[in-house]
Amino acid sequence: MVIDIIHNSFLLSDSQKIYLIDRVKNSSEAYADRLLKNLQAENTFMLQLLQKYKTDSKNTSIWQLKWELMQKNFEKIRALEASEDDDLFDLDKNLWEVL
Question: Which among 20, 43, 44 is positioned nearest to 32, based on CA atoms?
């Protein structure tokens, strides 16, 4: 179930999805539960942002929404990275390699 939710995530890149799927397969049940809660919070967050965008009469907030989505995504990945206390994945290092 968690793997399907990861695949359907709007905020995760393909490489992040691969990373998280691998981590779920090799991690504890508690980690999978925390990840599931984060992904469910993502769904709620997306709906809130879409409702905010819909009510924006000027329709100028799309870039602001995109930025908020990116920030939320990075915060979640960093929180998961910090909670595992290992050096398998360094988000900042991998971002520099991609860019």
Answer: 20
User: What would the pLDDT profile of 19-60 be if each residue is shown by its tens digit?
Assistant: 888 888 888 888 888 888 888 888 888 888 778 777 765 656
DSSP labels for 32-97? Answer: HHHHHHHHHHHHHHHHHHHHHHHH-TT---HHHHHHHHHHHHHHHHHHHHHHHT-SS--HHHHHHH
- 9 three-class SS: coil
d(CA 99, CA 69): 19
- At residue 12 the predicted structure's pLDDT band, cuts being 50, 70 and 90, is confident
